[in-house]
Design goal:
Number of helices: 7
Strand content: under 5%
Distance between the termini: 50 Å
Length: 188
């Protein structure tokens, strides 16, 4: 019976890719460190417009609080799109077209990674200062509420971005990890 399910699912999926890129089934997504409902919505729907729906479908009362390992049901209702799949040698596409598809898939994966990073970075900026480069809490300064000694007297937006990226890379390795730490501790 299992092999019959595999054949049916595989055939249905292949036909779906051949005729359309819309997926009609719900998905179970396991939250990874650094994920936000915004990044998950963007991954499944191409924008963060579905945050409230994901929260509602999964009984999440605080949209800013999800945990690594948590399983979320993503109800796509035919709205989710998937990236074009890599072609195989069984297709009749010439090698050049196969390379173009592979490059597009790699570019989309890269864009998705940078979107996740910028999503986590923006999330922290909003939590720390409301996104304001001129914000101060009496000691920490700017969009990311950095120690003034890190900025060396240069409070320009460009320097704040550079120093924040260096700080996060050195301390956490990524903005996603910094966000996960912030979510667990209330600071980064």
């Amino acid at each position: 019976m299992k092999s019959l399910k595999t054949i049916i699912f595989g055939s249905t999926f292949a036909l779906g890719l051949l005729f359309s890129t819309t997926v009609l089934a719900d998905s179970v997504y396991t939250v990874k460190p650094g994920d936000t409902l915004s990044s998950i919505s963007t991954e499944f729907f191409g924008s963060n417009n579905n945050i409230d729906q994901i929260a509602k479908d999964n009984n999440i009362s605080n949209i800013n609080l999800i945990h690594p390992g948590q399983e979320l049901t993503i109800k796509t209702d035919g709205k989710a799109t998937v990236a074009p799949a890599e072609t195989t040698k069984e297709t009749s596409q010439p090698a050049q077209e196969q390379q173009e598809v592979q490059q597009e898939v790699q570019q989309q994966a890269s864009t998705s990674t940078s979107a996740t990073t910028s999503s986590a970075k923006e999330w922290i900026a909003q939590k720390e200062s409301g996104g304001d480069y001129n914000a101060t809490n009496g000691y920490h300064i700017g969009r990311y509420q950095l120690d003034p000694s890190y900025l060396n007297g240069d409070y320009s937006p460009a320097n704040q971005e550079k120093v924040a990226d260096e700080y996060v890379a050195g301390r956490y390795g990524s903005w996603e990890n910094a966000q996960a730490f912030w979510m667990n501790n209330g600071w980064y």
